[in-house]
Amino acid sequence: MDIIETIKSRYDGLTKKQKKIADYMINHIDKMSFITMKELSDATSVTEVTILNACAALGFPSFKEFKYEARKYLGLREKLFLHESGDLGVSTIPKYELDNKKELLKSIAEEENVQWENYYASLDYEALFRIAKEFVYRKQIVLCGRGVSKMLAEMISIRLAGCTIGSVVMDTELNDNIHMGLPLIQNQTLTVVISFPDYYFMTEKIAEYAKSKGSHVIAITDSKEAAITRFSDDVLTVPSHTRLFLNTLSIPMGLLNVLTSAIDIEKNFKGEGKEAIGSLGSYFQEKSWWKLGK
């Protein structure tokens, strides 16, 4: 029985004020994952004690357990939607493309190489150093993502550790992970949200929550139109798809290499911005390791 069914099954036994809370919960289930008790109290014009009593009447030991079940429900709903819509990023190679497998693979490699070179040419080093300062001077860093995005978050965390900068990785698909990580997101926290198609909804919710807490939010995604950008102070976009895959790690990893290099330089140059920017550009001009097939 999911949270909506649970509320409806116990609805008749609630008091008038508890029913008012239950109605709000059902009608605004998308907000329930991260809503505070005070916010719910203000929205329903009831006391926080009444909310706690309503949670108990609905079978939840505490308000935290209620929010946990709300996140679990939203996660399952999203997975069902993707399954029913068939929007799972699965590609099928046309038969005519398989006539020459070697040429097909070579053309895919060349396409990805051109994509990276075009992206590299558009890099804004001033913006990269401005963002790098957030990593160096913020008291706390939380990196959020799911699936491929979580892999990128873990890579950033490893690189930050090499710069003696601590960070926490939050898997936005795991309720326990979210439950433990949310208290870390405060106004002095740098929250980095990473989201690529299929743009997992819970990562967007984390970005929204972080913004509401006054955290500085950096989004790493493939498009300025991605939902997480609405709640972000800084946005880094990078192409992530290839002919065969919805998401590839190669070009986003290239961005992370540049970004974490900027962070390391920023920490060592201590404010010598112009010299640092020149060094970063020169470093990546000299390197050719990103060029596939060369």
UniProtKB/TrEMBL annotation:
UniProt-listed InterPro entries: Homeodomain-like_sf, HTH_RpiR, RpiR-like, SIS_dom, SIS_dom_sf, WH-like_DNA-bd_sf
MF annotations from Gene Ontology: carbohydrate derivative binding; DNA binding; DNA-binding transcription factor activity
Span of domain SIS: 131-269
Occurrences of domain HTH rpiR-type (ranges): 1-77
Biological processes annotated in GO: carbohydrate derivative metabolic process
PROSITE patterns linked: HTH_RPIR (PS51071), SIS (PS51464)
Database matches in PANTHER family: GLUCOKINASE
Official protein name in the record: MurR/RpiR family transcriptional regulator
Native organism: Sellimonas intestinalis
